Amino acid sequence: MNRFLAIDIGNTRLKWAMYDAPRRGAALLAQGAEFLEQIEQLADGPWSRLPAPGCMLGCAVASEITRRRVHEQIDQMLGWDFAPQWVVPSAREAGVTNGYDQPLRLGADRWVAMIGARQRILQRGGPRPLIVVMVGTAVTVDALDAEGRFLGGLILPGHGIMLRALETGTAGLHVPTGQVTPFPTNTSDALTSGGTYAIAGAVERMYQHLYLHCRMEPACIMAGGAGWKMVPSMTRPFELVDNLVFEGLVALAEQRFAPPGA
């Protein structure tokens, strides 16, 4: 069986998932996550209980050193005989056209997430404009038209970076995390509400840009480890997806690894 291993390396964690085949609709056999500091535990830990995959595709925003650490863990696995492959953004793949001025400079996680989101929209009906929001250490808000062309996107700091920047640059703001409220009346709530509404405002602005450009209501898909924090504060309908990068990796793996006619 040509089992497929998908790996998503972010700024703080490595997430992995194993499927019974490199194709959309494949059964999820196992999944897990480790902080980057604990990558060396994979071979003797959660991966030791896995059946051998036949292929692997990964998405990494971390350094080349981190990828080499993953390769070392794969090399320790008996019976794992495949060449690790990592996504590099291209001009076009899996139905998405890359509109970045320099396509290779686009973050691999953004590229894979857009592919996953586009596939999700197409599976549910006709094509439509799409906003893809990734809420993590950084926040990205990317726009695709109904034909799958990536028009461009925003990058802004995530909640943690915003708070640390204010604490570093402003005296007297070392305060606990607060609550999101319409009218904050203490510094903790003011900081937390400000960061949350900044992200929600960026999504709303991109929504307006995309609606004016396409003359069609966009769909919005949100993902990322901190996406849940945005749920109560969004002004437009959206769908929160847990493993959007994995969905994109599976769609790419289907093109790269699945045998013809599978």
TrEMBL record:
Q: Where in the cell is it found?
A: Cytoplasm
EC number(s)? 2.7.1.33
Pathway given in the UniProt record: Cofactor biosynthesis; coenzyme A biosynthesis; CoA from (R)-pantothenate: step 1/5
Requisite cofactors: NH4(+); K(+)
Annotated ATP binding lies at: 8-15, 137
Tell whether Membrane is among the UniProt keywords: no
Q: Does the keyword S-adenosyl-L-methionine apply?
A: no
Write out the GO MF terms.
pantothenate kinase activity
Q: What is its main location?
A: cytoplasm
Q: Which domain of life is it from?
A: Bacteria
Cofactor remark from the record: A monovalent cation. Ammonium or potassium.
Query: Which residues participate in substrate binding?
Result: 100, 107-110, 187
Keyword set, alphabetical order: ATP-binding, Coenzyme A biosynthesis, Cytoplasm, Kinase, Nucleotide-binding, Potassium, Transferase
Q: Name one Pfam family in it.
A: Pan_kinase
Q: Where is the active site?
A: 109
Name the catalysed reactions.
(R)-pantothenate + ATP = (R)-4'-phosphopantothenate + ADP + H(+)
The record describes the protein's role as: Catalyzes the phosphorylation of pantothenate (Pan), the first step in CoA biosynthesis.
- Please describe the quaternary structure of this protein: Homodimer.
Name the PANTHER family for this protein: TYPE III PANTOTHENATE KINASE
Family per record: Belongs to the type III pantothenate kinase family.
Name it: Type III pantothenate kinase
Q: Which organism is it from?
A: Comamonas nitrativorans
